[in-house]
Amino acid sequence: MVSVAAAPLAACGKKVMKKETAAERARAVTVIKVEPRPITGSVSADGVLVPREEVTIIPEVSGFRVARVLVDEGQYVNAGQPLVEIDHALIKSQLEQQKALAAQAAVQAEQAEAQAMRVKDLDGQGVLSQEQLDQRRFQARAARATANAQAAAARDTETRARKLTVVAPVSGLILERNVRPGDLAAAAGSPWFRMAQGGEIELKADLSEQDLGRVKPGQRANVTLTSGATAEGYIRVVSPQLSSTTKLGTVRIHLPVRSDIRSGGYGRAAFADAGGQTLAVPETAVRYDADGASVMVVGSNNVVKRVPVTAGARGSGLVALVKGPPAGSLVVKSAASFLLDGDTVRPVLEAAK
């Protein structure tokens, strides 16, 4: 009786195993949507940092000594600000002398003109010969011309005196100074200063003919400096021609005015794709085998299907899909996942970044 009673009790304690469905047995995989994304860095180039507009400053007068230099490299100056003062002593005496000569010539011209006026109505009266009359009139005209020339010379000397203070023609950053007190001013010599107008420094980079066709003015670019710092800029100019020797074209990238962006330095620019946004997936989603490139697309029934693709431009961890699944398709993010056609998965959607 005891053994018979134990059997029903044992049967009551046994667990009933629930049979798993195919969906529950499915492996969880991360998927992403095929959608338009900007591809940054699909075109990149190294370049040198140069002033957007370089201004050179040289003296406009020669033969005078520098008295004082008022600015130095690295200073930002405003248009019209004095940079150098040249010794005024010599030209001051020249100006006084020239003004005296102009005044003397003016008096002589007035005297000659007065003499000419006195014989104005004596033509044909026999008081003076016609030759004498003409001579007085010519002398008056010559004296006035001499007075005008002396006055012009005085004004020229005044202008030169004002030029003895060398001023900044534009506002900007002093990049280089090549003048010292005691130097002799020479209009044909080396520039005294080099300036970056407005303090603007930009990246000048060379691109191949193929890459040059993929960029355009206004296109965004991310520039990495040798220090590791980065700066956001945009293409200001794309060269309309290629170098006959290197077959490269130049682009100029406008950068913000910053103290760490220095003329003469180097930078590497990564350009956003010229076509704007394009259908793209992470590079990790594309697998390569003997049959070519492909992605694993998850259908509405959560079944995986291999779809061949044609890869395009790459950059910032993305690859453009020239040919492949349509926008909105769910693609397995990691091509390293060991999945086969027909596998059932449990997709976990990753938000677009």
Element layout with pairings:
Layout: H1 2-13, H2 22-25, E1 27-33, E2 35-51, E3 54-57, E4 66-69, E5 76-77, E6 82-86, H3 89-118, H4 130-162, E7 165-167, E8 172-177, E9 193-197, E10 201-208, H5 209-212, E11 220-225, E12 230-238, E13 248-254, E14 266-282, E15 287-289, E16 292-298, E17 304-308, E18 310-315, E19 318-323, E20 330-332, E21 345-349
Parallel strand pairs: 1-21
Antiparallel strand pairs: 1-20, 2-10, 2-14, 3-9, 4-6, 5-8, 6-7, 8-9, 10-13, 11-12, 11-14, 12-13, 14-19, 15-16, 16-17, 16-20, 18-19
What features would you describe in this structure?
There is one protein chain. By secondary structure, the protein is of the alpha+beta class. The protein folds into two domains: 21-51 and 200-353, Elongation Factor Tu (Ef-tu), domain 3 (Beta Barrel); 54-192, Beta Barrel (OB fold (Dihydrolipoamide Acetyltransferase, E2P)), CATH 2.40.50. 24% of the residues lie in helices and 38% in strands. It is built from five helices and 21 strands. Strands 1, 15, 16, 17, 20 and 21 form a six-stranded mixed β-sheet that branches. A hairpin with a 2-residue loop joins β18 (310-315) and β19. Residues 1-7 have low confidence and may be disordered.
- Under CATH at level 1, the class of the largest domain stands as Mainly Beta
Q: In the CATH hierarchy, what is the superfamily of the largest domain?
A: Efflux pump adaptor protein, beta barrel domain
- Overall mean pLDDT score? 84
Helix and strand string, N-terminal first? HHEEEEEEHHEEEEHEEEEEEEEEEE
